[in-house]
């Protein structure tokens, strides 16, 4: 399969009387471990790129110290740049998203920054249809990677939901955990909890920063090690991008599709992924480790 039918991805949406619980997305996540003054310029460039492409579709925002999301308009466009002027050990907590029909609607496009201590995460959740134009999507990821000093990252299909909503943080995890177990291509939609891991699990695109690339022996060595013609390795930003197949996929373990190209990349990088203890929302420790290691063998 070279692409996921949009009709299939549309099935991964659930709503209730308060709005959307979760929906499928194309997620781009970049991780860094630098203080805010060293990340601000790159984060702002990514924010501006997002607003140029998707700003007309966003309707609400949620910034540090706000109790709940508020309606977004042009007069709020400078809030994120202002937050980035502050001193700190990591990116500020901020998100902007689509969703005004019901109080708990939370839908792509989403731009979000968050952190776990000194470890920062910058992510976009985009409508899945963007993956139909692989060239355009790769160009977008390349521009983000060129601007932001990432140490690692990924891009692929995911499930988009609002973990900062008290209501959603209770209702959503038990619903999406079985989907993550069955469809291995779904990345974890809340990258903040993976921010301190040496590497997150691989996906369609796996981005490696200069430190990891150096440990692997350089881009030429990586190309030599990953011999499958369906896997490409290209320079991107200050690091490299490993592309597993023409387009992102979600797989389906019930049908024997465990995404062999993703697994080939995962096996190659498993020694760099780390073994940090983590319990993902909706899973116990054993299930969480099994999910994190799903592409290791």
Fraction in beta strands:
15-25%
Mean of residue pLDDT values = 95
User: Strand-and-helix sequence, N→C?
Assistant: HEEHEEHEEEHEHEHHEEHH
Overall form: globular
Q: Give the helix proportion (percent range).
A: 25-40%
Stretches with pLDDT under 50, minimum 5 residues = none
Number of separate domains: 1
Please outline the major beta sheet: 11 strands, antiparallel
Distance from N terminus to C terminus (CA atoms, Å) equals 21 Å
**Helix/strand/pairing class, anyone?**
alpha+beta
Number of helices: 9
Number of strands: 11
Radius of gyration: 18 Å
Task: Provide structural commentary.
It is a single chain. With 297 residues, this protein is an alpha+beta fold. It has one domain. Helices cover 32% and strands 24% of the residues. It is built from nine helices and eleven strands. It has helices at 6-10, 36-54, 79-83, 134-147, 166-182, 210-216, 219-225, 260-273, 285-292, and strands at residues 13-16, 19-32, 60-63, 70-71, 94-98, 107-116, 119-126, 152-160, 205-208, 231-236, 239-244. Strands 1, 2, 3, 4, 5, 6, 7, 8, 9, 10 and 11 form an eleven-stranded antiparallel sheet that branches. Helix 2 runs antiparallel to helix 4 (134-147). It is globular. The two termini are 21 Å apart. The model has no long low-confidence stretch (mean pLDDT 95).
């Amino acid at each position: 399969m070279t692409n996921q039918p949009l009709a299939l991805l549309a099935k991964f949406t659930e709503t209730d009387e308060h709005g959307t619980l979760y929906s499928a997305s194309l997620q781009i996540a970049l991780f860094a471990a630098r203080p805010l003054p060293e990340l601000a310029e790159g984060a702002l460039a990514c924010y501006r790129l997002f607003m140029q492409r998707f700003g007309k579709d966003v309707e609400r925002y949620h910034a540090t110290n706000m109790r709940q999301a508020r309606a977004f308009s042009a007069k709020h466009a400078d809030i994120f740049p202002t937050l980035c002027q502050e001193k700190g050990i990591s990116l500020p907590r901020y998100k902007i998203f689509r969703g005004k029909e019901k109080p708990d609607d939370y839908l792509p496009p989403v731009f979000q920054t968050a952190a776990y201590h000194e470890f920062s995460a910058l992510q976009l959740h985009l409508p899945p249809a963007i993956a139909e134009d692989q060239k355009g999507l790769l160009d977008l990821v390349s521009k983000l990677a060129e601007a932001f000093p990432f140490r690692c990252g990924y891009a692929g299909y995911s499930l988009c939901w609002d973990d900062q909503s008290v209501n959603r943080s209770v209702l959503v995890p038990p619903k999406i955990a079985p989907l993550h177990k069955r469809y291995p291509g779904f990345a974890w939609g809340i990258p903040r909890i993976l921010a301190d891991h040496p590497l997150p699990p691989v996906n369609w695109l796996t981005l490696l920063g200069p430190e990891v690339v150096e440990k692997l022996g350089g881009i030429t060595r990586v190309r030599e090690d990953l011999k499958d013609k369906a896997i490409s390795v290209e320079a991107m930003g200050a690091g490299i991008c490993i592309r597993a197949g023409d387009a992102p996929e979600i797989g389906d373990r019930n049908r024997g599709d465990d995404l062999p190209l993703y697994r080939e990349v995962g096996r190659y990088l498993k020694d760099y992924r780390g073994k940090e203890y983590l319990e993902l929302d909706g899973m116990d420790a054993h299930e969480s480790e099994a999910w994190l290691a799903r592409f290791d063998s």
